[in-house]
């Protein structure tokens, strides 16, 4: 955590915080074919194995753990394969449609596995050479032939039709991009069902939309909610040495600018006292999450006025921002649902910053999108700003606070609401972050443009029943987030499409 790196953001002068843990998933691959073909056509089985090896290498190139389960070509081999797949603790499975295969090579697998299965139909040739065409050539490129059969059998087994990657084995950027996206989804699923999300304190009182049943989160996402104590954080805080604090201060000053205040009278230039406190709390927070073996944290705690605990828990902003940028989602106001949304966006590699809607600009047609306090530093436009605040509005305490805007370009927001029936729901939208001035208040604010216009968008957004918080990330990613929701069996709503028709 002490090392500050740079990546593609370097041209904008934005420091890059390295991940605490590498992204990971375990992906299974098996091929299917028709056993009757092998004795009929010499060399066809070898060609199928070659095609499978090429595809396995494509998946492996994304850095995930890939297990090649070989080829199923009849019911007997499918039943044997089912047991192997179930024992492997997989996050996703690619079924490589190597040639026509009867659905007996697939039916029991789709019936008995609770892991997403993607059908992949990538034929070697962009088109048959019709002047030289043969049955062997056709069978070698018959990747799509059994896809409708497999989809129909999935429905009969009570499952939704598997998604399909369709194209050519080589020189097909569209198919390669789809494979990459499915690997990204696998990483989300890998961490969701294993995550230990810490929680301490309580929801900020009266925020009725944020009350969350920890068991419901486990049921929907697989994660475990770890109830922690702020006293354990205080214990770590007391152990922070002067040397620890000085090292963290150097890291903070590498990442942040500390400008003079502008128009807001509750802001001032970062003080040495606030910097020292933020650094000490950041060190303690990292040790606390390591000790608890956490993958995320939602918190809100007020403590006794003027107490050391009040001073500690109201100065988590800096440590929170550094951790969130490093792939450890943290959100205040004890919003566990949005912590999950942040984790999803982070594992997709698009950021995932804690946000809500702020004032609307009716002259230019945008809404300010942000939140007080901590944010995902790796999606900042330029170097983020650190200011001292005389008060945190709506909350107790004072100290250092983070200010920046998200870098210009497409953005995607994800809120996790709760339906009347008590089920979680994904509410998703795409828009655009456009460069321009933001309030110099020590908070994040981004100029968010959404189609068809800001009034219509915001009315449609609230009609879907989101939590008032959401995760915000970069890119046009509504489709992939909707796929995650559908895999999890959740209702999903995309409120606005891409920003292509927005004025730049």
Describe the structure.
It contains 16 helices and 19 strands. The protein is an alpha/beta fold. The strands form four sheets. A six-stranded antiparallel β-barrel has the order 11-12-17-16-15-18. It is elongated. Mean pLDDT is 94; it is low at 1-11 and 498-504.
Q: Can you tell me the residue ranges where pLDDT is under 50 for at least 5 consecutive residues?
A: 1-11, 498-504
How would you sum up the global shape? elongated
The main β sheet shows up as:
6 strands, antiparallel, barrel
CATH-defined fold name of the largest domain: L-fucose Isomerase, Chain A, domain 3
CATH architecture of the largest domain: Alpha-Beta Barrel
- Overall pLDDT score: 94
Computed structural class? alpha/beta
Distance between the termini: 37 Å
**Total helix count?**
16
Share of helical residues: 25-40%
Count of distinct structural domains:
2
**Strand-residue proportion:** 15-25%
Which strands sit side by side, in order, in the main sheet? 11-12-17-16-15-18
Radius of gyration, CA atoms, in whole angstroms: 25 Å
CATH first level of the largest domain: Alpha Beta
Number of strands: 19
